[in-house]
Design a protein that fits this description.
Two copies of one chain form a homodimer. With 392 residues, chain A is of the alpha/beta class. Chain A has helices at residues 7-26, 31-38, 42-54, 65-69, 121-135, 164-177, 186-196, 256-260, 262-271, 279-287, 291-315, 331-344, 364-376, and strands at residues 29-30, 58-61, 76-79, 85-91, 95-101, 107-114, 145-152, 181-185, 206-211, 215-221, 224-225, 319-323, 354-357. In chain A, strands 6-5-4-7-8 form a five-stranded mixed beta sheet. The two termini of chain A are 27 Å apart. Chains A, B: It comes from Actinacidiphila polyblastidii. Chains A, B: This is ROK family protein.
């Protein structure tokens, strides 16, 4: 799972990808057939194949009876049908979500369990292990597991081994399941998932904004998840939209999160005399045109649109995806967002930004964890095919 | 210059890179020596080498006398010392700049010529051709030219052949010089140049802001120039910083450019009773502590810092580089920028953003054109070595 960036390491990775790709398309092949198709020297090919067999990605099958009779037993190589299973986990603030895919990159199971915000990280990890255990069975064999991708709350630096929550998560899960574990910010992973399996599968440059208890998001840049220099990208919730506004949990002032979180909207709605047990009451009232709910949601939309405009002018995404509980308000939210976004965009950019609701719901970040490991592990090869990718 | 993204094309590109790299490090090598070092089959290696000889990147040298006498004439392969020369051109609003590098990626010449803003694109292209002709000589042989990278004013879409100014520039220069021509926005190219040769050679995620007659910039994301979905990234000058402010040339309102351009600063300074023939008078007065100049520059700094904070929260660059004529004000500008940037950043990000002045000056975008073609052309191989890269 380490990244090797030298030209020889890149070349070796390319060779591995090529061999895996030929086996995926061409079914079982002999070494001679592989050699004829891949253009590698015998020495290089045997070296690559040996490593792929050793790490379990490829299996060598016994020669069949017909070949034996002709006295020319030729071993054939094939993808290991039990390799390449992957699990995604989202250790979110109020719930743990898990999802699993098989070697064909089909989603074979998902599970979610809510918990109180007081549950600590170790408790969330234990809950995730329990949910994964519940998914295990015919379609997910833990012995065939190749990698786990995990979404965690808060900043996750790019460099591995920098300690903190990501290191604890990684150590704990890789000890339990014996496979590599990659960790990234869960909201960024939801952004990746929307671009791989969700609302933006047709786009290479995507901005994903999540309006939930917290406000955050992620950027997909030219098809890849963008982390930023210190793992601190996608903090849209901490763009200041009201310099004289209230103090944010982050320590800043007037952050978007202080006016656009679930809690801020509920508070605004109740202060205006609205009655709501939870945010779903507000968003459905806004959809139904109830004036106080519509106003509370529209106020969020204007702030969101203004913040998005600044980011879009800088980054130039063609697609903006909005998710989280507030997105359930539909056009009552996206109308005002679109209006403020349009006002703040360079006129030349206005027709070029496509605003869409998120498609993946609460398991988005867990699916993003899978996308992360599919993207990074040579064992699992490239991104799932966008045409055949399952939606959750 | 087309991009081929299939696995076989990527692999071939990797093979070419490897062969070029081995020749660059190991001097002239026989085919047998190359084969032993690169791990390719004889067939593949001969195919790759044949293509590199055909396109002029590699030359086959005659066997030397000692070998002849021993009766074993072995042809040796070497990088073509006359290949791999590249030219960068900046067709800016008020001047044309050109720069050239040799096969060793050393800058062998630069030239600039100011012109009036009324000079049309065809006129600027003709001026560029004249300046390139003036550079031609012993160190730049036009016959050995491999590619030209051009910076142009305004949006440049990612997809080639989309018409407009980029298509005109590309057609005109490739007809004149007979080589591939790549075009990108000139301010984005200046961003790339700062990351390859300038103030941010140690950084992979860079935000470059240029405060000049216009205000713009570019993002380098994980070491590569970021374009955005429609070639519209880096438009920092059109982030609204004053919603009730004045109309911008772009059609928007209160854009950063309306308060932070050279023209806006001169106007503000003169309105306050300051006397300045040009912006250099204002920036040097601000450096000297003259109150009206310092105030005019500080006002820019506060707006710039606030806009940068929004972008940094979203994108997470570790390094912010400020260039353009206004950067000459030094700490009189960067002090207020830093103050407003810090106030607007998430507290956790505050110690992680490094603010620096640009290092490359007016020829930056032309150097960025070279970086663009060095990065894209298999002939010219990878980016210049950052340790040995020349600074302009």
């Amino acid at each position: 799972m380490q990244q090797h960036d030298g030209p020889l390491a890149r070349l070796r990775r390319g060779h591995e990808d090529l061999v895996l790709d030929l086996l995926r398309r061409g079914g079982p092949l002999s070494r001679a057939e592989l050699g004829a198709q891949c253009g590698l020297s015998r020495t290089t090919l045997y070296d690559i194949v040996g490593a792929l067999v050793a790490n379990g990605a490829v299996v060598a099958s016994a020669p069949d009876a017909a070949q034996r009779r002709r006295g020319r037993p030729v071993e054939r190589l094939a993808l290991n049908p039990e390799a390449g299973q992957a699990i995604g986990i989202d250790l979110a603030r109020r719930a743990v979500h898990v999802a699993a895919v098989n070697v064909a990159h089909e989603v074979v199971g998902t599970a979610s369990r809510p918990h109180g915000p007081e549950l600590d990280l170790a408790g969330r990890i234990a809950l995730a292990e329990e949910l994964v255990g519940g998914l295990a069975g015919d379609s997910l064999r833990l012995a065939a597991l190749s990698a786990i991708g995990v979404g965690a709350v808060g900043p996750v630096a790019s460099a591995p081994g920098t300690g903190g929550a990501p290191a604890l998560i990684s150590a704990s899960l890789s000890r339990r399941f014996g496979v590599p574990v990659l960790v990234d910010n869960n909201t960024r992973l939801a952004a990746l998932a929307e671009s791989v399996w969700g609302a933006a599968t047709d786009a290479r440059d995507v901005l994903y904004l999540r309006l939930s208890h917290g406000v955050g998001g992620g950027l997909v840049v030219d098809g890849a998840l963008h982390r930023g220099a210190h793992g601190l990208s996608g903090e849209f919730g901490h763009i200041s939209v009201d310099p004289g506004g209230r103090r944010c949990e982050c320590g800043g002032t007037g952050c978007l999160e202080t006016v656009a979180s679930v809690g801020a909207v509920l508070e605004r709605y109740r202060a205006a005399g609205g009655a709501a047990a939870d945010i779903a009451d507000v968003t459905s009232a806004a959809r139904a045109g109830e004036p106080r709910a519509a106003e509370a949601v529209a106020a969020v939309g204007h702030h969101v649109g203004a913040a998005l405009a600044a980011v879009c002018n800088a980054v130039g995404p063609g697609t903006v995806v909005i998710g989280g509980e507030l997105a359930a308000a539909g056009e009552a939210l996206t109308g005002p967002v679109r209006e403020a976004l349009t006002a703040g965009l360079m006129p030349v950019s206005r027709p070029l930004v496509d605003l869409r609701p998120a498609a993946l719901g609460e398991v988005g970040a867990a699916l993003g964890g899978i996308a992360l490991v599919l993207h990074r592990s040579p064992l699992l090869s490239r991104y799932p095919n966008r045409e055949t990718g399952e939606e959750a």
